[in-house]
Amino acid sequence: MKFRFFLLIASFILVSALLLASCMSSGTSTETGNTSQETSKPVTSDVIRIEFSGTGYTISNASACIEEGKSLVLTKAGTYSLSGELTDGQVVVRVSKDEEVTLELNNVSITCSTSSAISVESADKVTLFSVAGTTNTFTDGTSYSSTTGPNACIHSKDDLTFEGNGTIIIHGNYNHAVKSNNDIKIKSGAIQLDAVGNAIRGNDSVTITGGTVNVTSCKDGLKASTTDKEGKGFVLIEGGSVTLTCSDDAIQAILSVTISGGLVTVSAQGDVVNCTGTVDIAQGCLVQK
């Protein structure tokens, strides 16, 4: 009897210990999962904040940039929040070709008298994100100190994307307003442009899926000019509202022009669409003034 009694007691203790260990293990696993989820969320401390004032600035992480003359060169991937007014200077993006940078535009004004207001020298992709309720203005000079470098107020050697729900105003006083050697995508936001040359020139492509684009004056409005890359050299409009006032062609592309959605309103002294490839325009999507 005593042996059975002790055996029962020992069994009870063993089962209780196993149950307790199981509960503790389950609790630990849940807590670790929650911690992992929290750290994966973007936090405001990850954003590098730059506030301009005249020709100077303050920055929350000085190791993320270097100064080169009038240029503030961003050298780390990630998100930068830009605010204030830079009266004569330039923001340059120079990160690895596999890295991305987001410029969060928060009531910023950048003017550069001798070059581009924003120049992307190296990146995988740069996104210009306009914060809702803000107006952001970029202006270049009528002449550049170098004729072999950038030739647009916002110039990029790599992919360029516009997003957000704010307003972006771009004055291309030297040549183009926006130019990318690769692809340009406009997803949302209100963008107003004027240019001596082209308003929006993506050598590989220009794609508009949303937002409002208003070009008040330029030569060519939307242009994709690549001839040596397979599948490139196209203009695609799938949504949004686009208004183009041009002294030459409104839309020009090598491979194709496709307008499948949105509304494009055009006033052009040249061709409404100039394309040596295929042209596909959905009924009611293109209106000529």
In a nutshell, what does this entry contain?
The protein is 13% helix and 50% strand. The chain has 289 residues and is mainly beta.
Describe, in plain words, how this protein is organized in 3D:
- By secondary structure, this protein is mainly beta.
- The chain folds into 2 domains: 47-167, no CATH class; 198-289.
- It is built from 1 helix and 28 strands.
- It has one helix at 2-40; strands spanning 48-54, 56-59, 65-68, 71-74, 78-86, 90-94, 100-112, 118-122, 125-130, 135-140, 152-156, 159-164, 167-172, 176-180, 183-186, 190-195, 200-202, 205-208, 212-217, 222-224, 234-237, 241-246, 251-253, 256-259, 263-268, 273-275, 278-281, 286-288.
- The strands form 2 sheets. The chain has an 18-stranded mixed β-sheet that branches.
- A hairpin with a 1-residue loop joins strand 1 (48-54) and strand 2.
- The longest helix is centred in the first third of the chain and has 39 residues, at 2-40.
Topology:
Elements: H1 2-40, E1 48-54, E2 56-59, E3 65-68, E4 71-74, E5 78-86, E6 90-94, E7 100-112, E8 118-122, E9 125-130, E10 135-140, E11 152-156, E12 159-164, E13 167-172, E14 176-180, E15 183-186, E16 190-195, E17 200-202, E18 205-208, E19 212-217, E20 222-224, E21 234-237, E22 241-246, E23 251-253, E24 256-259, E25 263-268, E26 273-275, E27 278-281, E28 286-288
Parallel strand pairs: 1-5, 4-6, 5-7, 6-8, 7-9, 7-10, 8-11, 9-12, 10-13, 11-14, 12-15, 13-16, 14-17, 15-18, 16-19, 17-20, 18-21, 19-22, 20-23, 21-24, 22-25, 23-26, 24-27, 25-28
Antiparallel strand pairs: 1-2, 3-4
